[in-house]
Specification:
The chain is mainly α and 307 residues long. Helices cover 56% and strands 3% of the residues. The protein has one domain. The strands form two sheets. Strands 1-4 form a two-stranded parallel sheet. Strands 2-3 form a two-stranded parallel sheet. Helix 2 packs antiparallel against helix 3. The longest helix is centred in the first third of the chain and has 26 residues.
Length: 307
């Protein structure tokens, strides 16, 4: 079943994006006007919570579910990407590739295999849990602005998940990635300069999102069955937060039916009715770290370029 059987809430998504971006701009502007670091921490928390709503909207755009118009969908994704901050056309390829690699040997951060360095695998997972994953993506704007081809050409042979991602990047999006990366640097550089915000304060507010987003990136997959679609779980937090994050925690339902818009995910009934566990408990379990396994699951889509 495709998303044409479900109404895409385009107008609602647009209103939500306008609200979220307006609030994010105010939070960034306020970073240069609050009196001390405690206030900066509160701004970072607010930015983290609201931009995860922004990311949920960006995620809809990645799946062409933000709006029925392709052009509105693309534009909305690009604008939201500015507040990540990262090029939408890079994030999109990474996410769609995730749907192809999920739980295969190419994307199993909770395991390490014969011949892999267990220390590196632990550092990689703990980097996800502590926000370093987001820092790497945000820093890639510099490479993307200078020469986006470097993001795919310089294969990281020592890291299988990154190499698998690089192999799927489509060269036709390189100009988009470069333009968006330049725009990211220009927008945030201008905000820091014209609003006279100390750079560390500004980055601290952005990291409020970076930490939360990065920490949640594998929480729905850690320890799940090694199946590309069913290797996910539905989790829950507070009801208001689940709604604010646009049902993103109904993650198993999303992986089973990735063409279904966010309002309908809680109502899907296709063998995914297992009880929803706690998001916090699932996050804490990940600190056990990766473990050695001899079970191998090949990526059926290895090397397929993202369209």
């Amino acid at each position: 079943m495709t998303h044409t059987h479900f109404q895409i809430p385009g107008k609602l998504n647009l209103l939500l994006e306008i609200f979220v971006i307006s609030a994010l701009v105010v939070l960034l502007w306020a970073a240069g006007r609050v009196p001390n670091g405690w206030w900066v921490m509160l701004l970072a928390l607010g930015y983290g919570i609201l931009m995860n709503t922004g990311y949920a909207l960006l995620h809809e755009a990645e799946h062409n579910l933000f709006h029925r118009s392709k052009y509105v969908n693309e534009f909305a994704g690009v604008v939201l990407g500015l507040f990540f901050p990262a090029p939408f056309h890079l994030l999109r390829q990474g996410h769609l590739g995730h749907h192809m690699r999920n739980r295969s040997d190419d994307e199993a951060f909770d395991f390490y295999f014969e011949g892999e360095n267990p220390v590196w695998k632990h550092l990689q997972l703990y980097g996800i849990l502590t926000g370093l994953f987001w820092i790497v993506i945000a820093a890639s704007n510099i490479l993307g602005a200078i020469n986006p081809a470097w993001l795919g050409n310089k294969k990281l042979k020592f890291d299988r998940p990154t190499e698998a991602l690089q192999e799927t990047l489509n060269p036709k999006y390189l100009k988009w990635i470069q333009a968006e990366a330049i725009l990211v640097l220009a927008v945030h550089g201008s905000a820091i300069y014209f609003w006279q915000i100390a750079g560390l304060r500004y980055l601290a507010v952005l990291f409020g999102f970076g930490f939360i987003w990065s920490a949640l990136q594998y929480v729905h997959h850690f320890g799940t069955t090694r199946d590309v679609q069913k290797g996910a779980r539905n989790l829950k937090t507070f009801a208001w937060l689940d709604l604010l994050w646009l049902n993103h925690n109904w993650h198993l339902n999303h992986h089973v039916r990735p063409t279904v818009p966010w309002p309908y995910l809680p109502f899907l009934r296709e063998g995914t009715e297992s009880p929803r566990g706690s998001l916090v408990a699932a996050y804490l379990r990940m600190w056990r770290g990766p473990r050695f396994t001899t079970e191998r699951v090949q990526n059926r889509y290895a090397g397929r370029i993202i369209n």
